[in-house]
Amino acid sequence: MTHKVKQHYLKIFFFTGICIFFQNTAYALEAEFSGQVSGWTTETRRQEQWENTTGLRYIPQFTVSQALAEESFIDAEVSINSFLLTRKNSDHKSYDAELYRALLRYATAQTETRVGLQKINFGPAQLLRSLMWFDRMDPTDPTQFTKGVYAARFKYNTLNNASFWLWCLYGNKDPKGYEWLPTIPEKPEYGGRIQYPVLGGELAATVHTRKADGDEFFLKDYTENRYALDGQWDIGIGVWFESVLIEQKFESIYPQIDPSALPYGWTKMITIGADYTIGMGNGLYILAEHMATVVSEKPFGWNSDQHVSAVMFRYPVGILDSFFAIGYYAWETQAYGQYINWQRTYDKWVLSLGLFYYPETAEGNAGFIQNAGMGGYGAQFMIIFNH
Description:
This protein is mainly beta. The chain has one helix spanning 3-22, and strands spanning 30-46, 49-69, 72-87, 93-107, 111-118, 149-157, 163-169, 189-198, 201-212, 219-234, 238-252, 266-278, 284-296, 304-317, 321-330, 335-345, 349-358, 376-386. The longest helix has 20 residues, at 3-22.
């Protein structure tokens, strides 16, 4: 059975489950239809020529909910990502409509269970996220668009603000987050997370394991295990960290391949960050993060490393307008990346104008994963309408 066929059956199962559950209580349903329309045009100077990209996206969302008992309910959410993208001076034009979210949720006072196509993210970092495992949100994107994953996720919240997460992912073919190899769709991924109050802040531990498809690189039996520890505190300024240890087990299909040509078996990532609002004018918000990535043959070895720093400034101008700027610096390549944005927000409308510069080469862009493919300098204007 192919991956597309399996996804088709997953969708049928999801929608059938919604209908069966709600069919006897339809009179008490609460339904809501909303959506977001975004249009943008981007002018980029790359390789000594200007390129224009223009796009239009509409994400309609339909939600139904049903109260079951005191402090418990069930709801379902379905949204579609429909888009049109064109590039000037080329014949490239793409358009499609696909599921963006398809989610069934059951919630009580202390638990939440979600099944379907959903967004899963966690961790305190905002710009350089070591814990960007299941999404690829770009901090410069006003819409915060990111693809979801097919998963079942359970979360339990205790009375002292601790929480326990469990999840199982299945049927996700494309790489997620920092993954460089896709998951085998027929193999489930699973993991969990514990968040616990510590010293006036929060400390969390996370684990995840999956089977990756390494055939393209002549690798077999590829297993990836991730272990993470993160925390955040307010000590007058906000401080946080995210640390990740990734174990990659695999064998070469061709034993004669030089072992030095194979990927390293261990990757370590750590992000440290802090933020503070200076009481000048309407309040100048400053955030700084640094991320180090180390690869090695052994768990605590050190074969090569990569360092990226980022800083963000945000200042509100009145009620409607705000400015923010982000700067990146890759230490090994001594490359800079900058993004400056003005945004005006109404009740339903958002206007956004951004100016950017990112290195054109992949080496120079090292560490700027959210901005992959945006090498060069230029401007982007975006209009967003929420209904």
